[in-house]
Amino acid sequence: MSAAEDEVYSLLVPLTSDRLIVPRACVAEVVRFAPPRKQEGDLDWMLGTVSWNGRDLPVVSYEGVLGKAVPAPTGRTRIVVFVASTGQLKTGYFGVITQGFPQLVRVNRDVLKLEATDGWPDGAPVLCRVKMINEFPLIPDLEKLELLLARESVQA
User: pLDDT for 80-138, tens place per residue?
Assistant: First the structure.
């Protein structure tokens, strides 16, 4: 197997004090931030919905899901649109706010090492933290995040 076949194009997604690393194939688009329309009864981490490609896109704060403060939007805030993979969301997509544009990186087993499998609240949508050269990004459990969103949202 060639080195190129062992690599996965991934995105480092900037959060307030952390980064996520996700396969590029999970992301449909990165869009400019627009204030979400909040529904009565939404949890703090459920920011509401924005209009995206003719549909209402549910938008969440990953920091909020982890029990941290939901960041205030800045001029750098974007929405990363993820492809929903479990079929639980009618929209087929959901958004996560970020603190800037994701960075495209190529990942292979030589640069990615397991760092931690705990350190966040029980039930949080996190698989693990990895070490990638001089970065320590989280690998999110996007399926769990989608299911949390579907369970708590009228979008289900």
Answer: 999 999 888 888 999 999 999 999 999 988 888 999 888 888 889 999 999 998 899 99
Exposure string of 29-53, with b = 16+ CB inside 10 Å and e = fewer, is: ebeebeebeeeeebeebbbbbbebe
**Alpha-carbon 76 to chain mean position:** 16
Alpha carbon 133 to chain centroid distance?
21
Paired tokens of 91: 């929209």
pTM, entire model: 0.91
**Quick one: 4-152 is in which CATH superfamily?**
CheA-289, Domain 4 (2.40.50.180)
Pairing of strands 55-60, 93-98: parallel
| C-alpha–C-alpha distance, residues 105 and 116, integer Å | 21
